[in-house]
Write a structure and sequence with these properties.
By secondary structure, the protein is an alpha/beta fold. Helices cover 36% and strands 21% of the residues.
C-alpha cells in the first residue's frame, strides 16, 4: 500500500510545472527518490542549477502537490541539483533535435514572428508592443518578446520585470524571465550595476540579436514579437536577413513628420521579403471629459502610412488609432500594461482591437491578408 501511495505522490509531484521551462517536472527528469513512511512523504527533486531563481516556488508547489494526496499528512522535500551530464541531456531534449545555436524560428516554424517597427523614436512603439504581447497572452497564446531596441531598451520596465532580473542559464541556454505570461528578453537584463548605456555598432548589434534568437529558450510559441529600434539601421537589416518571412506591424503618430519616416521602415521591411500586416496610429485624438477633442499631434498620419504601403493586390489596413491616454503612460511606468490595469480605457480598447486582429489572422486567416475596418 505504501508503495502504491508513493506512486500516487510521484504522479502528483511530477505534474508540477517548472515556472521557467513551463513543463512538468516529470518530463524534465527533475524527480528523484520519492518514498512514503506511514503518512509522511519524502520527496526528492533536482533543480537545473545552483541558485535557481524559481527554487522557492518549485519547492512550495511540490510540497503542496504531495500534501494534497489522500493519506499524506506531512511532506519532507529534499532539494538537489542536476549533474552536468543531466543538464546536458536536458538541454538536448529542450532543443528537440536542433543543433546548438540553431535558430528555431525559420520559415518552417509554426511560430508567427511579428516585428513591431517605426520610422522614428518616441511614437510609443515599445508600449504598444508590450501591451500587444500581454493581450495575446491573456487570450491563451504562448507569447515571446524580444527587445531588439538595444540602445533604447524599455521592455523590462514596461512589463514590470524587476531591475537586476537576469535570465537563468542552463549551460548555453538562457531561460527568459516571464511577466504577465510573456517570456521576455532584453539587453537591459545583462548590463552590470551602474551601466545604463549600450554603445555598440553593427557587428555587436548583429551578434546580440542573433543570440537572442538562438540561445534563448522560449519553448513552443504561438507568437514571437520583436520590439524593433526605430528607423532602418543595422538591426532592421539583421532581422531582414535572419527572418525574411517575418510579419511587420508599423507604428506611427498622426503627424506628418512621423508618418513620412514610418513609411520608409515598412518599405525596407518589404524589400527584405517581410510582409507588412498593418499600421497602428498611436497618440491619436483624445476626447476630454467636456467632449472637446484634442488633436495634439494632428490627424490622418496612420491612414496615410497604410495607403502608402498598400499595393493593388496587397492592401495594408490601419488596424487602430490609439488615443492619447494618461493611463497608458502611468501603466507603463508602473509595469502594469493598460490592457490589464485599465482595459476599459479607450487606448486599451484600441490595443485590444489590434490584438484581436492579429490573433484572428493567426488562427483562421493563414496566408490571407488581414481585413480590419480602419478606425
Amino acid at each position: 500500500m505504501t508503495g502504491d501511495l508513493a506512486d500516487v505522490v510521484r504522479r502528483a509531484v511530477g505534474a508540477v510545472t517548472d515556472p521557467e521551462l513551463r513543463r512538468p517536472l516529470a518530463d524534465l527528469d527533475m524527480l528523484r527518490d520519492i518514498t512514503v513512511d506511514g503518512t509522511v512523504a519524502h520527496v526528492g527533486i533536482a533543480l537545473t542549477i545552483v541558485g535557481c531563481p524559481a527554487a522557492t516556488r518549485i519547492e512550495s508547489d511540490v510540497h503542496a502537490a504531495a500534501a494534497a494526496v489522500p493519506g499524506i499528512e506531512a511532506v519532507e522535500v529534499a532539494v538537489g541539483v542536476m549533474t552536468p551530464e543531466e543538464r546536458r541531456a536536458l538541454t538536448e531534449r529542450l532543443r528537440d533535435g536542433r543543433a546548438p545555436r540553431q535558430m528555431p524560428f525559420g520559415p518552417d516554424s509554426l511560430t508567427r514572428v511579428i516585428a513591431v517597427t517605426s520610422g522614428k523614436g518616441g511614437v510609443g512603439k515599445s508600449s504598444l508592443t508590450a501591451n500587444l504581447a500581454v493581450a495575446l497572452a491573456a487570450r491563451g497564446r504562448r507569447v515571446g518578446l524580444i527587445d531588439a531596441d538595444v540602445h533604447g531598451f524599455s521592455i523590462p520596465g514596461l512589463l514590470g520585470i524587476a531591475p537586476g532580473t537576469q535570465p537563468t542559464r542552463i549551460d548555453d541556454l538562457m531561460l527568459p524571465p516571464v511577466a504577465h505570461d510573456v517570456k521576455a528578453i532584453s539587453i537591459g537584463m545583462f548590463l552590470r550595476d551602474g551601466e545604463s548605456v549600450v554603445a555598440w555598432r553593427g557587428p555587436m548589434l548583429h551578434r546580440t540579436v542573433q543570440q537572442f534568437l538562438t540561445d534563448v529558450f522560449f519553448g513552443d510559441l504561438d507568437v514571437l514579437l520583436i520590439d524593433m529600434p526605430p528607423g532602418t539601421g543595422d538591426i532592421a537589416i539583421t532581422l531582414g536577413q535572419l527572418l525574411p518571412h517575418a510579419e511587420v506591424l508599423v507604428v506611427t503618430t498622426p503627424q506628418e513628420a512621423a508618418s513620412d519616416v514610418a513609411i520608409r521602415s515598412g518599405l525596407v521591411a518589404r524589400q527584405t521579403g517581410q510582409r507588412v500586416i498593418g499600421v497602428v496610429e498611436n497618440m491619436a485624438a483624445l476626447t476630454l471629459p467636456d467632449g472637446t477633442v484634442l488633436d495634439l499631434f494632428g490627424s490622418g498620419g496612420g491612414q496615410a502610412v497604410a495607403d502608402a504601403l498598400s499595393q493593388d493586390a496587397d492592401p495594408v489596413p490601419l488596424l487602430a488609432s490609439v488615443p492619447l491616454s494618461p493611463a497608458l503612460r502611468t501603466g507603463g511606468d508602473a509595469g502594469l500594461p493598460i490592457v490589464l490595469g485599465d482595459p476599459q480605457d479607450p487606448a486599451a480598447r484600441a490595443i485590444l482591437a489590434v490584438a484581436d486582429a492579429v490573433d484572428q489572422a493567426g488562427r483562421g486567416l493563414a496566408g490571407r491578408r488581414l481585413s480590419v475596418t480602419p478606425r
